[in-house]
Amino acid sequence: MKPSSILPALLALALGAGATLGLLLAEQQWHVATLAIVAVAALFVGGRLGLGDRVYRNAEAHHRIVMPAAWTLAAFVIFALRGHDFELLMLCTTMLYVLAGLGLTVQFGYAGVVNFAAAAFVGVGAYTAAVTMTHTGMPHLLVVLASGVVAAIIGSVLLLPLLRTRGHYAALITIAFGILFRTFLEVNDTLGGPQGLKVPAFTLLGHDFNEAIVFADETEWSFYTGYALLILVVLGAAYTLVRRLERSWIGVGLDAVRLDETAASAFGLNAAAWKIAAFSIGNFLAGVAGALYAMLTAFIAPANFALGDSLILVSIVILGGLGNPLGLLPAALIVVVLPEKLQVIQEYRFLLFSALVIAILLLRPGGLIPRRARLWFPGGRP
Amino acid sequence: MDPAVLAQHLLNGTMLGVIYALVAVGFTLFFGVLDVIKFSHGDVVMLGAFTALATSTGLAAFDIDSTIVLVLILVSAIAVTALLGALIARFLVLPLRDAPTLNVLLITLMAGTVIREAVRLFYPQGSNPKPFPRLLPTGAMEFGAFTFRHDSAILLAIGVGAIVATHLLVQKTRLGLAIRAVAQDAETASAMGIPFRATVLATFALGSALAALAGVVNGLHYSEISFNMGLLLGAIGFSAAVIGGLGNVYGAILGGFIFAALQTIGAVALPFASAYKDVFAFGAVILLMAWKPGGLLAERSAERV
Amino acid sequence: MTAPLLVAAGLSVRFGGVRALDGFDVEIRTGELLGLIGPNGSGKTTFFNTVTGFVTPAGGKVMFAGEDITALAARHVARRGVARTFQRLRLLTELSVFDNLMLGQHLVLDHGVWTNLFARWRLRNQLRAQIEAARGVLSHFSATLPDRLFEPVAALTMIDRRRVEVCRALMRAPRLLLLDEPSAGMTPDETAELMGDLQNVKAARPDLAVILIEHDMGVIESAADRCVVLDYGRKIAEGDYATVTRDPAVRRAYLGEEAD
Questions:
Q1: Which phi and psi angles does B140 have, rounded to 5°?
Q2: In this complex, do C75 and A265 lie within 8 Å of one another by their Cβ atoms?
Q3: Exposure letters A315-334 (e unless 16+ CB within 10 A, then b)
Q4: Average pLDDT, chain A
Q5: What is the DSSP letter of C152?
Q6: Displacement of CA A37 from its chain's centroid (Å)
Q7: A165 at B interface, C-beta within 8 A
């Protein structure tokens, strides 16, 4: 088989990185708006013309080069932003939304389990991190993991009713839990009440991440650089694992549960058990995102983890393309960065994003980057 | 417990129950005909309340008898919400009939957000709670710790009247028959000549009209409305409909009262933190659903294997 | 005489006021192809649903290979070697033919986290083996389907979809195969083809017992070793095709009271 060129894939990567940097660094509102519109239009048009397909197949065919290249490029983007505090913070927040979105993708995109309390689980992770960091000496990397585990466990508490019920019930239960969680936090003074909690800085091997990184020649990098790289590593690991999950026997099982529980049971699947597993994995990722978010912002409050935020996360997953982790990044950029940059739409962002999701569901349900058929072998056919 | 206090709780609980029942019946009707959960319903309730408020503000310039104002605001609220309900059905829900059911869930959820945000952003001072006009006779009867507001009696009458009217409509009219037929088996109903789309639109209009009523009653009772009152009400209405068994109108009514009872019990049992009453009520709902996933009165739909 | 593979005794199933099954008895032995016929609504699919664990009977028992499986849930029944197709085709149309066949293989596949997420070379080996197995089963039914293994089911014709559904049920080499109106939506030629292919499979697997629900009498006549007729949830006739179709009770069930 004639090897296909790697250029389209690398070109797409470069464009993506460029667009991200441009979006983050642009100062003028109309620059930002133009860039966003052009980028989205490019995705749509590219999809229509079949370019998306070509790039995708190229990227998959050369995945051994393209994947590391992508992550390196991401690190480069972070490096390029090393002097910009606010832009790095936005990038970090975007990446954390992507991480939580990955969790939601496993729950909703693969297993068909509705979760309207994603933000609450992020909150569980955040508060777990805050409390463990303040009151114990647990190494901070472990704290991140523990936060994910706690979120997964609390999620499993909701699971008993979920197991015996269908889609819309799961929706109700998660909404109820979201309300419950926030009320519980606000009424509970030991966890800071509505005022919130302060979170200590992340430290690794003695280095305090809340301190700017100073070099011998007195150049200074924003302290967010450390966090950005940390989050990038975690995101990379999560993304790789979720991708592998989909392209495996587990992925087939999850899809079967989502598409037709009856048929799945007829062939031996324990639909309930699979849903628990997916729900827990997703909440674990949400919890990890929450812990990192807490350390990043050094301060958390119940208001950060409300129903509106859960709906934003759901919007990101739908907008990006349900079941396709690739779409999460552009969607998260649109949802997180755009309102920050376009001050005019800040107030209107919930309204706009809801309207956007409605439009997507009616006109292009596949989202920005629709999910593709399961590609068992990265190089194409076996 | 002091019987007067008990009576007060009972009265409050009944009031809440009526409001919740009105909302829950909407949810259950929508589910019955289309197997969908219209998540925007709570926000439609809110919109009904705000429409009523806007109308009464507009009418304040003229010196009109408050009973007439009450009738007018009810009419305007019902007209607006019924229309909106039908539009949502026509443009958002029906087109997605063949899509995965979760898409409909999402689209209605987003529609609810659009309604909520639109009110917050475009109604003058939308983000602040707004006083609702007092159009009913003030004054109350007092029996010790028990206060029976005169307007409570009227509101209860309105609410119960609406519920009874809905019951009669569903059971005794041709439209009601059409709704029940479509709810049971849409294909056969169409084959029998029942216009599917029209029935669905009518159902959504009906359910949304009840929402307006719920919104106005709510406003009159608490004398205040806010743009996000729909969220909690919607969650409660949905829970109530689920408790009673989705698709079952009587179940929805029962569920409404049960949820009100749960909230009241929660408030009584945990007097130190009244906010916990919601935690208690929703927690109880979750447990209830774990025990009886189909609702207390059976759900009216089944999947063919 | 060997013991029967499946014995259903006195099965009663009620849905609300309707008696879907009303004291239904039936047996099937290994290697047999039993035709299950009866007017619409007579309880045939309900019988399948009861055997496969989707419905719990109000009364009666189902014994499979000597074990009482009456109360077992669907996934446990599947484990014991019972496979089925559905009246209303239940394929995962979004997914590829291969993925659908892999659902049939579910109980055999390795779902370990290590293999699926980390030791990807092991997954690749398993994948290759399964691709071969899938192609093997498909080749019994179609010369073209094995080459279309990775196409979405949505792209297939109705008859190819039915073939895939049957293959899905055959992947794990079940002991008992329940086919629910496999010929629905097919032309007579296609139906004949399907039944021919099924006979080939049976020849290759002589122990496979099959219960076939069908409305097409031609299929029953050519394929079934024995027939059972259901009406209003009870057995009204049993025997070979000729006997059963001559039975006046059967004629009455299908055609109504005979005019005198």
A1: -155, 165
A2: yes
A3: bbbbbbbbbbbbbbbbbbbb
A4: 86
A5: B
A6: 22
A7: yes
Which chain C residues contact residue B304 at CB under 8 A? Answer: 88
For residue A346, what is the nearest residue in chain B, using CA coordinates? B121
B114: which chain A residues are within 8 Å (Cβ-Cβ)?
351, 354-355, 358
Q: Choose among B117, C105, C114: nearest CA to A244.
A: C114
Asked if A129 and A296 touch (Cβ cutoff 8 Å), the reply is no
What is the per-residue pLDDT for C257?
58
Contact A9, A55 (CB under 8 A): yes
DSSP assignment string, B231-246: HHHHHHHHHHHHHH-T
**Contacts by B277-283 with C-beta closer than 8 Å and gap 24+?**
B278/A179, B278/A180, B278/A183, B278/B232, B279/A180, B279/A183, B279/A184, B279/A187, B281/B236, B281/B239, B282/A176, B282/A177, B282/A179, B282/A180, B282/B235, B282/B239, B283/A180
pLDDT for residue B274: 67
ipTM score assigned to the predicted complex: 0.92
Task: Read off the pLDDT of each residue in C163-185 and give the average, rounded to a whole number.
Answer: 93
pTM above 0.80, yes or no: yes
Q: Residue A379: phi, psi to the nearest 5?
A: -85, 0
**Ranges of CATH 3.40.50.300 domains, chain C:** 1-81+174-260
- How deeply is B266 buried, as exposed, middle or buried, from its count of CB atoms within 10 A (0-12, 13-18, 19+)? buried
Give the amino acid at A251: G
Strand partners, C235: C230
Contacts of A28 (CB under 8 A, 6+ apart): none
Residue C80: closest C-alpha in chain A: A268
> A363 vs A37, A349, A357, B90, CA distance in Å?
17, 20, 10, 15
Residue among B185, B216, B209 nearest B85 (CA): B209
- What is the C-alpha separation between B237 and B186, in angstroms, rounded? 25
Query: The tokens 């629910």 sit on which residue?
Result: C180
C178 touches chain B (CB under 8 A): no
CA separation for the pair A13, C190 (Å, rounded): 50
CATH class of the domain defined by C1-81+174-260: alpha beta
C1 versus A230: which is more confidently predicted?
A: A230
Residue-by-residue DSSP string for A334-369: IIIIHHHH-HHHHTTHHHHHHHHHHHHHHH-TT-SS
User: Does any CB of chain B come closer than 8 Å to the CB of residue A154?
Assistant: no
Contacts with A265 from chain C: Cβ below 8 Å: 53-54, 73-75, 78
CB contact (8 A) between residue C55 and residue B305 = yes
pLDDT band, residue A349 (cuts 50/70/90): confident
Residues contacting residue B46 through CB under 8 Å, at least 6 positions apart: B115, B116, B119, B215, B225, B227, B228, B229, B230, B233
What's residue B255's pLDDT?
92
Query: How far C215 CA sits from the closest chain A CA (Å)?
Result: 23
| pLDDT tens track for B196-233 | 888 889 999 999 999 999 999 999 888 889 888 888 88
Q: Which residues pair with C211 in a beta bridge?
A: C34, C178
What does the pLDDT read at residue A378? Answer: 66
Chain C positions touching B305 (Cβ under 8 A) are 45, 49, 54-55, 86
Q: Best of A114, A116, A162, A168 to disrupt the B interface by mutation (most B CBs within 10 Å)?
A: A168
Please tell me the total number of residues recorded for chain B in this structure: 305
Contacts of B202 (CB under 8 A, 6+ apart): B86, B175, B178, B179
Q: Are A238 and A101 in contact (CB under 8 A)?
A: no
Decide if pLDDT at C260 tops 50: no
**DSSP assignment letter at A209:** T
CA angle A291, A292, A294 (to 5 degrees): 65
Give the C-alpha separation, A257 to A115, whole Å: 16
- DSSP helix/strand/coil, B123: coil
Q: Could you give the domains of chain A?
A: 84-337 (1.10.3470)
